[in-house]
Amino acid sequence: MLELNINGKSVEIGDDVDPTTPLLWVLRDTLGMVGTKYGCGVGQCSACTVHVNGAALQSCQLPVQNAVGMNITTIEGLARDGELTAVQQAWIEHDVAQCGYCQAGQIMRASALLATNPAPTDADIDTYMSANICRCGTYNRIRKAIHSAAESLAAANRDADDQTRVA
Amino acid sequence: MSTQNKDFEFEPYIPHDLQLLLAERRKAMALSRRGFLKMTGLAGGGLVIGVSCSLPSEDAGPVSTTTFAANPFVQIRPDNTIVIFSKNPDVGQGVKTSMPMIVAEELDVDWSQVEVAQADIDQARYDAQIAGGSTSIPSNWMTLRQAGASARSMIVSAAALEWGVPEGEITTDAGFVVHAATERRAAYGAFADRAATLPVPDVQSLVLKERAQWKLLGKRVSGVDNRKIVTGQPLYGIDQRLPDMVYANLVKAPVIGAKPVSANLDHIKTLPGVKDAFVVERLGNPIDFGINTASLLPGIAIIANSTWSAFQAGKALEVTWDDTDASSDSWSGAVAEAKRMSAEQGAQSLSNKGDVDAAFASAKATPAGFYTYQFASHADLEPQNCTAWFKGDSIEIWAPTQTPTMAIPAIAQMLGLPNDKVTLHQLRGGGGFGRRLANDSVCEVAWIAKQLGVPVKAQWSREDDMSFDYYRPGGFHSFKAAIDQQGKLSAWQDHFITFGRNGRPVSAADLGAQEFPVNALANARLTQTLLPSGIPTGPWRAPGSNALAFAIQCFLHECSAAAGRDHLEFLLEVFDGLPAPGAGGRGGFGGGRGGFGGGPNRERAQAVIRLAAQEAGWGRSLPAGRGLGLAFHFSHQGHFAEVAEVSVDSNRKVTVHKVTVAGDIGPIVNMSGAENQAQGSVIDALSTLMGLEITFEGGRVEQRNFDRYPILRMSQAPEVAVHFIQSENNPTGVGEPAFPPAAPAICNAIFAASGQRVRTMPLTKEGFTI
């Protein structure tokens, strides 16, 4: 029996699951959380990106036993009470997706980027996001959506600061 | 060579089965006068049940309580929600948004009140449901408009009866019916009950909007599945789950065409999570691409309680394969053979116009070039998969296929069931690019499901997806051209060396006899040689065109260079040779017989070439090591010209700064979607040009995952600027035609920047990197 923390909830994984199974397949097949996608299984495409203690990580490369004690966030856990994050909203606003299959992984990586670098340059984005493949070639729009999300987050922070000062 | 058919001239680059099917359907539809619009949307379980509580309409007039199913495409709920059914598969080309937009326009509703639902696969109600050949928009344009207009007309008639006013005095506005004289205005939904009692109007009586009246078409609309995509909700084939579902991994022979003799099945069955393991025999012809008949690659099926267990057991499998009838193909051998015969003419003549030899004899220059392009894998990011549940006398399938209409009879025949005992649910495909035209994964899981009797998902690993593809065929062109004393292109010669089986090119490996610039020249000679091949090939985004444009448009640039002329001026001049607008060219798909409009149009071609050049600043001076390249290609009824701006450094490192696209596909349905397709096409083309290559030796494919098949990444992706000329033609598709001109535009720019002529794809073969 393994105990995982996924999207803020404690989840038990039964003994019928081999503890060396990659987190990706435990999410998809055992827990039915299919938002995290399988693309290559060898850490090349990053369609399976999740957050482990806030860092973007390829879940196909993480044996589930090594995920015990970590805070795991998946694409299903980004929005709170149905309210989309700035990154998710930007993805819809810029109509980034074509087939959309890689986009959960792209959004997870972009969210991790903005958490540590709130105002990335094009070069920052290119470097950080180049871990993720988009077979449809939506890179122009991913770049725009990340800038757009960074701006909305900055605007929200300014508002919050203003309110703090007023208070 | 193309199959001969006296009633039909094939477009060489669209799967022939698909063309025949669409042509038959067009004929049938013309006879029945679109009679299927008269079918109620109620049949076949299509009704989406609405909220049945009644809502007061604005003037407290009529109130409806039931959903009005106007036709298979439109349902109007009492609360004024409009449900529009999208008939075709969406594999990333955006039709789940764009096709309903066409209905919504004629229905005259606001997009915010529309809910889009994926239609059932039902030939009687929806005709052919396929995603291929960029045909969804042109083949369904009129039907979708009529579906919207028919439903609107019934709502107007119902309102006229309710209000006791003439229909002619009623107008509509964003989902509301308006009678100006009596200042009445009510939501469509209020008339749902009454409309449901009215006869469906004759299609000939419908008045469609003029283009100037469009409110929605041409706007930027975000994809209807986007919210599910960004929140990770189940959507794709791979996301399908069923109670007690098991997972299958069919391990196939590493050498193409080999068959299993024996395997350590007893050991495999003892492995963790494994429930069963058995041999699957070869069925039909899985090597030749085909979409109408079932086939199976042979192998060992492993059934397990998770995808991972099935994959792991596959790695422990030890199989003895019989390779008696297997492929022994060698790519390096084919390259050597093609080079050896490049100076000769091919034995088969494809085209022989005018007097090529006389043109060569009197030429000022006779440039020549030998071009090579590689095999390529589709590499859809969602590896092939399908889910099925065999229930004794019927089967239910959940498939991310591009050809559900063909899958149903193929599966029925394979399993010995009547067609109506095969139910197929269409799920979103994580990429198509032509790979999902083939229903091999559907056949595979249907066969396995029959052995099991419980729900089963067959999941291919990335390695299997890359190793068992219907590849874009590689090929070779040995060109020679004549430049006359005036510096004009006066003759064109091409020895096309391609791959064949049974005396014919393999799927997607043919060359049209009228391929540009043959159709624009008085003197041309095309010959062909077939290299025998056992490698499976098939349509891959812009089949044929995706490689031909590279060779032809690059060699045209060699011609303008040999003539000492500006390429823009030279290219425009070649188009002057097209006999008449629209009449030159492939003749093919529909061939002006009510279909898709025939070959390239001189004016449309020249207009996009001029626009691309203008937007990219053609002719401006650039620093050393930087250059512009221009190319054009017509395919899938789309006219596209592209200009690339490229730098090349002393280490042959290529940087593509920007690609400017100018396209004419008629009016744009969804501007956001169309632009996205064009941008993605360019990046896909650059990816394929730079480093993607499938090679094989001893019949074994050598690339199995992205480490050796390096899809372009963000840091390598150029800015892509897209411009459309929205000409007065019916709209055509945009999933494919923006792809072909990109590679030659980039290669021509590499020459402009560096003086290095690129004649081989991928460019890594020429020592370039990106």
Topology:
The complex is a heterodimer of chains A (167) and B (770).
Chain A: E1 2-6, E2 9-13, H1 23-30, E3 49-52, E4 55-58, E5 71-73, H2 86-93, H3 103-116, H4 122-129, H5 139-166
Parallel strand pairs in A: 1-5
Antiparallel strand pairs in A: 1-2, 3-4, 3-5
Chain B: H1 16-32, E1 68-71, E2 74-76, E3 82-86, H2 95-107, E4 114-118, H3 123-126, H4 136-163, E5 170-173, E6 176-179, E7 184-187, H5 192-195, H6 226-231, E8 246-252, E9 259-263, H7 265-268, E10 274-280, E11 299-304, H8 307-316, E12 319-322, H9 331-340, E13 348-353, H10 356-361, E14 368-373, E15 385-390, E16 395-399, H11 404-415, E17 422-426, H12 440-452, E18 456-459, H13 462-467, E19 475-483, E20 489-501, E21 504-505, E22 524-532, H14 545-563, H15 567-576, H16 602-616, E23 626-635, E24 638-648, E25 654-664, H17 671-690, E26 696-697, E27 700-701, E28 719-724, H18 742-754
Helix pairs in contact in B: 2-4, 11-12, 14-18, 15-16
Specify the oligomeric state: heterodimer
Radius of gyration of chain A: 17 Å
* Approximate shape of chain B: globular
The ordered string of helix (H) and strand (E) elements of chain A is: EEHEEEHHHH
- Tally of alpha and pi helices of chain B: 18
Q: Tell me the greatest interface.
A: A-B, 60 and 69 residues
List unreliable stretches of 5+ residues of chain B: 1-6, 49-57, 583-596
Portion in strands of chain B: 15-25%
Taking Cα atoms only, what radius of gyration of chain B do you get, to the nearest Å?
A: 27 Å
Strand proportion of chain A, as a percent range, falls in 5-15%
What is the first-to-last residue Cα distance of chain B?
Answer: 37 Å
Main beta sheet of chain A: strand number and arrangement?
5 strands, mixed
Helical/strand content category of chain A? alpha+beta
* Apparent shape of chain A: globular
Please bin the fraction of helical residues of chain B. 25-40%
